[in-house]
């Protein structure tokens, strides 16, 4: 548990995106298997039930893609914010010839 807390937000994001990618691949395989299976059953009710399950998995994949996009967009926004706040901090720090530093722009 301590190892996870040592990860940067960027590392956690990358780990989450990788897990989403692996889960997506798994769901796609299950969806294909269910689609093939639904064609094999002669009993219409069973085939229909399997088809509904495949449809549900397809919808889950759609939502998973949305979650992935939100995570990626959030990561870009956070990265931009960190760059901007770093620039603002640099502008506030004043270096003096004698090696001292102080905050500038404060009343």
Would you give an account of this structure?
The protein is mainly alpha-helical and 107 residues long. The chain has one domain (2-103). It is built from three helices and two strands. Strand 1 and strand 2 (101-103) form a beta hairpin. Helix 2 runs antiparallel to helix 3. The longest helix is centred in the middle third of the chain and has 49 residues, at 44-92. The protein starts with a helix and ends with a strand. The mean pLDDT is 79.
Whole-number tally of structural domains: 1
**Could you give the count of β-strands?**
2
C-alpha geometry: rod-shaped
Estimated share of beta-strand residues: 5-15%
Count of helical stretches: 3
Q: Sketch the topology as an H/E string, one letter per element.
A: HHHEE
Q: Which stretches are low in confidence, meaning pLDDT under 50 for 5 or more residues running?
A: none
Q: How would you state the average pLDDT, rounded?
A: 79
Evaluate the radius of gyration: 25 Å
- Tell me the span between the first and last alpha carbons: 44 Å
Determine the fraction of residues in helical runs and give it as a percent range: over 70%
Structural class: mainly alpha
The profile of the biggest β sheet is: 2 strands, antiparallel
Strand order across the largest sheet: 1-2
Question: What's the quick description here?
Answer:
The protein has 107 residues and is mainly alpha-helical.
């Amino acid at each position: 548990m301590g190892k996870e807390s040592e990860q940067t937000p960027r590392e956690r994001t990358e780990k989450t995106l990788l897990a989403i990618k692996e889960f997506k691949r798994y769901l796609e395989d299950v969806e294909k298997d269910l689609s093939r299976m639904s064609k094999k059953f002669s009993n219409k009710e069973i085939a229909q039930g399997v088809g509904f399950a495949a449809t549900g998995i397809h919808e889950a994949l759609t939502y998973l893609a949305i979650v992935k996009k939100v995570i990626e967009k959030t990561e870009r926004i956070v990265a931009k914010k960190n760059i901007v706040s770093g620039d603002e901090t640099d502008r506030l720090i004043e270096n003096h010839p004698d090696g001292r530093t102080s905050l500038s722009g404060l009343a």
